Amino acid sequence: LNGRLDLSQAEAVMDVIQAKNEYALKSSMSQLKGSVQKTIKEIRSDLIYEIAFIESALDDPEHISLEGYPQKLHGIVEKEQKSIEELLKTSTDGKIIREGIETVIVGKPNAGKSSLLNLLVGENKAIVTDIEGTTRDILEEYITLHGITLKIVDTAGIRGVSRAREVAKGADLVLYVVDSSTPLDENDEEIIEMLKDRKAIVLYNKTDLASAVSMEALKEKINHPLIPISAKEETGIAQLADTIKSMFFSGKISFNDEVYITNARHKEALEEAADSLAMVKQSIEDGMPEDFFSIDLMAAYGSLGKITGEEVGEDLVNEIFSKFCMGK
């Protein structure tokens, strides 16, 4: 409110406090130092220059010519569109950095889902027995593997539990636990069908027991990574962590020069700006008068200003700052 921080930096303060892992902390610290602010201000500076030029030319056509300007502006708009597109591309990774990879564990009853969850979490959070279908609730846990947070959802045995499938539909990653000591049945077939076109890892569990399902037979049925594990003997977890890392962020996360968009409000404002710039391009291509360019350029300028707080109302500022009132 007093100009010491812009709105994106103020929001980053809360993100620093709530960071769930090292990557989220680095991203929040980068935004607190002004990485998002700097990028947005550069784009806004370019846009306001063009808006001012158009308005000046329309007010004083005798001294400022707009001849050939639409073609020049077309190139400038394409450059700014590309900058915004690059920021938007990071929003998926940014959401995962901030909130974690929403991961659902599925498998038929007694496949070892709860034992796997307990192993990953490091303590006994789920009920583990030899009786089929003991886990009746959906449990959630946050864990960190190699610096990446997984928001793990452990579902009850998929047989007769429709919510397990519903939860899996919205997940970023599905871990399918296969009981290698028992033959595949209709539950397994249903899960395999569900995994088509999804990011998933198949965990060939209970490798400490005699095998009733060969890995080769499984590979013929699925096109996902297959990792042999034993929740009981705690093997295969390092390979699982490496596989997850390679499936997201192209296997690496860099904070050297890249700005990650981790805030849903920022993403929405960027999308609005991108739409306005697309309208500018369309107006140029349709041969519209120059004042049409100015209207949509100003709309894009305003949308980007929402990110830094220069174009937002008092209500939004108050709503954001109300989140800092903790412990009352």
Report on this model:
The longest helix has 31 residues, at 69-99. The chain has a six-stranded mixed beta sheet, sandwiched between helices. α3 runs antiparallel to α11. With 328 residues, it is α/β, with parallel strands linked by helices. It starts with 6 loop residues before the first helix and ends in a 6-residue tail after the last helix. The protein is elongated, with a radius of gyration of 26 Å. It contains twelve helices and six strands. It has helices at 7-18, 22-32, 35-59, 69-99, 113-121, 162-169, 186-194, 215-221, 237-247, 264-285, 290-308, 314-322; strands at 101-106, 139-145, 148-154, 173-179, 200-205, 226-228. β2 and β3 form a beta hairpin.
Q: What can be said about this structure in brief?
A:
This protein has helices spanning 7-18, 22-32, 35-59, 69-99, 113-121, 162-169, 186-194, 215-221, 237-247, 264-285, 290-308, 314-322, and strands at 101-106, 139-145, 148-154, 173-179, 200-205, 226-228. It is of the alpha/beta class. Strands 2-3-1-4-5-6 form a six-stranded mixed β-sheet, sandwiched between helices.
